[in-house]
Amino acid sequence: MKSKLLHDGEEKTWALIFKSGDEVMKGLDAFARENGLSAAHFTGIGAFHDLVLGYFNFEKKDYKKIPLVEQVEVLSLLGDVTLERGSPKVHAHVVVGKADGSAWGGHLIAGHVRPTLEVILVESPKHLRRRTDAETGLALIDLE
User: Fold this and answer.
1) How far is CA 95 from the centre of its chain?
2) Residue 11 DSSP class
3) 13 forms bridges with which residues in the sheet?
4) Can you give the pLDDT at residue 143?
5) DSSP helix, strand, coil percent of the chain (3-state; round to 5)
6) What's the rounded Cα separation, in Å, for the pair 142 and 128?
7) Which CATH class, in words, describes the domain spanning 2-142?
8) pLDDT (0 to 100) of residue 126
9) Cα separations (Å) of 77 from 16, 22, 65?
10) Under a CB-based contact definition with an 8 Å cutoff, are residues 131 and 89 in contact?
11) pTM score
12) How confident is the chain (144 residues) per 10-residue block, as mean pLDDT?
């Protein structure tokens, strides 16, 4: 992955360009840690050659993993970066389009790029923190 700072003001904006074979969640996590991100949001488009979606099962308090091993278009990648226990935490959802025109989506657990993924990330000057929610077991944004 390559990155370029596009705007360096109160909010910072980066372009993150992933190439074939890059694993997106690992790349986003590494970028967030290297840049000390504590509150950011991002969008992206491009394509994957394989990915793992997640669907949160409320009763089991765990994600059902849904692997897709085929070329797909990334129709929408949305996510945020917050702090969880003092470290950056990346949370992303994705909708992908298959060759037959159907769309699949969910929590993005992992995805390998082919041929590219273009992500625009905007850092906020304020911090957001996550705390574990007792009811769900999920680390949810706490605005307190």
Assistant:
1) 12
2) S
3) 7, 122
4) 82
5) 10, 65, 25
6) 7
7) alpha beta
8) 76
9) 13, 15, 18
10) no
11) 0.89
12) 95 97 98 96 98 95 96 98 93 98 98 98 83 87 82
